[in-house]
Design goal:
This protein has a domain of 31 residues. The model has no long low-confidence stretch (mean pLDDT 89). It contains two helices and two strands; from the N terminus they run αβαβ.
Length: 59
C-alpha cells in the first residue's frame, strides 16, 4: 500500500516525464474503469490480486 500518492498518480507523473520504463500495475482495484485508467495512462499491464500461479508461467 502506498502512503503519499496512489499508483495512478505515480504512473501519470512518470509518463509525463517521458519515462518509458515498463510498468506493471499490481493492485486490488479490479473494476474495469480502474484497469482502463491504468492502461490508458501508460501502464504496460494491469494485474489484479489475488494472484494465481499460472498467470506468470512461461513456456
Amino acid at each position: 500500500m502506498l502512503t503519499s500518492k496512489n499508483g495512478f498518480e505515480i504512473l501519470k507523473e512518470l509518463r509525463k516525464e517521458k519515462n518509458q520504463t515498463p510498468i506493471i500495475m499490481l493492485t486490488a482495484k479490479s473494476e474495469i474503469y480502474d484497469k482502463l485508467n491504468g492502461l490508458e495512462n501508460g501502464a504496460d499491464d494491469y494485474i489484479t490480486k489475488p494472484l494465481y500461479g499460472g498467470r506468470f508461467k512461461t513456456n
